[in-house]
Amino acid sequence: MLLSRYKDIPVDRPVFKKKNSNPMLFLVKGYLAVIALGTILLSCPFSLQKDLSILDAFFTATSAVCVTGLSVIDIGTTFTHAGLWILAALIQIGGLGIMTFSTAILLLSGMKPGFNQQALFKSGFTTEGSIEPKKILSAVLPFTVVLEGLGMTALFTQFDHLPLNERILYSVFHAISAFCNAGFSPLPNSLVSYQFNPVVCLVVILLVLAGGIGFLSMSEIKNLFDFKTRTIQKISLHTKIALSATLIISLIEMFSVLLIEWNGAFDGQSWAEKLLSGAFVALSSRTAGFNTIDPLSLRETSTIIIIIAMFIGASPGSCGGGLKTTTAAVITLLGINRLLGRDKTQAMGRTIPEETVDKALRIFIVYAVLALVGTLTLLFTEYPAGAIGSTHSHFVFVFFEVASALSTCGLSLGLTPELTASGRIFICIFMFVGRMGALFLISAVVKKKDAGTWYAEEDIMVG
C-alpha cells in the first residue's frame, strides 16, 4: 500500500510538522513533481502514436497540469487513447489543485494536515478560515463529479458519429478540460467542427463558467435558498463582486467582438449563429482556450480585446487563471472611489480592506511587468517566427501568446508550435507562474522580512 509507511502515525498527528516548513513551497514542489511524472508517462511507448521529444512531452505535461491548453503538437494524432487518458488525469489534478488531492489522500488515510497546510488549502476555496478542510472537500469533490458527469453525458449524445471507445474518451476528456478551464481538445482544430452545434457549445460554455466562477461563489449560489426555513441566505461581498464582474466583463467582450466581427469573422452566419459564436468567444477566451473559429480570422482590435479578457481571467478559488475578476474589480473600484474623493474603497455598502486593495495592486503590477518582460524576451528569441503573418503585428502575436500562457488561457495565434526550444521553456515557466500565481511563488521562495526602518515623509510633484 502506497501509504503503509505512515500506518504507525497517530490519527490526530499533523503531517508536515517540520519546524519552519513552508507549505507554499510544498505546493510548488507538488506541482513540479506531477509535471515530472506526467512528462515521463506521456513519453512512454504506450502513450504515443508517433515520436515525441522529451521537451515537447514536458511542455504538454506543464500545459495540462497548469490547465493552460497551449500545445506544440496535435494531441489527437500524437497520443494514443492511453496517452489521452493520462492527459485528462493531469488536467483534473491541475484543475482542482495539488492541495485538494493531497489533503483528500491524507484525510482518507486517517492523517491530519498541519495547521499551515490546512490554512493554505482553505485559502484557495473560501474566505472563511474556520471551515474545516473535510467540509470543503465534501462540497468541492461531489460538485466537480456531478457537473463533469452531466457535461460528459450531454457531450456523449453529440459524438454519436465516433466509435464507442472514442465517444466515451472524447466526452470525458472535453468535460474535464472544459470544467478545469484547460482548453485541450483531441479533435482537429479544437471545436471548429461543432461551431454551430448549440448543445456542444452551450455545454462547454456552462462547464467553463462553473469551473471559472469559484467554488465559494458556486456554493453560495447552491445554498442561496434555505428550504428548511424557506428564506433566502445572504451572499458574501466576494460572491457579489465575482458574479457582477464576470457578467459585466463577459457582456462587454461579447458585444465588442460581435460589433467588430459581425461582417468580419462572423460574416455569412445567421444572427443566431453570430450570437452563439460571440458568446463562445467571450466566455471561452477569458480562461478556457477552446475555439470554434480560427483566432487568426479575427481582426486585430478583437485580438487586443481578447488579450485584455485573458489577463483578467476567472474568479478566485476556481480552476481558471489570470489576474482574477475580483482583482480587476477592486482596482476599478479603487479608481472610482478615488475620483469621487473617497479615501476608502467602497462597494455595495461595504468597505474593502486596505490590505486587499494593496494585494490587488501588487498582483496587477507583477502581472504587467511579467507580461512586458515576457513579450520583449520572446520578440528577441523568436522574431521572425514562421507563424507570424501579415495581418497582425509581431508584437500582438507575441503578446497574445505570453498573455495566454501567463493567464493559463491556452488560445494561440499559431506561434506556440513554431517556438524555438528556448521559447518553449520560457512559455512553460510562464504557464507555471500563471497557475501558481506570481505573488504566491514570491512568498514561497522569499522569507518575509520586518518593515525595517521608517523614514520621515517628504512630498514630490506628480502628474
UniProtKB/TrEMBL annotation:
Q: Which UniProt keywords apply?
A: Cell membrane, Ion transport, Membrane, Transmembrane, Transmembrane helix, Transport
Topology with respect to the bilayer: Multi-pass membrane protein
Q: What is its main location?
A: membrane
Subcellular compartments: Cell membrane
Which regions span the lipid bilayer? 26-48, 54-73, 85-108, 196-216, 237-259, 296-315, 361-381, 393-413, 425-446
Q: Which GO terms describe its molecular function?
A: monoatomic cation transmembrane transporter activity
GO terms classed as biological process: metal ion transport
GO CC annotation: what is one?
plasma membrane
Q: Which PANTHER family match?
A: KTR SYSTEM POTASSIUM UPTAKE PROTEIN B, TRK SYSTEM POTASSIUM UPTAKE PROTEIN TRKG-RELATED
Q: What is this protein called?
A: Trk system potassium uptake protein TrkH
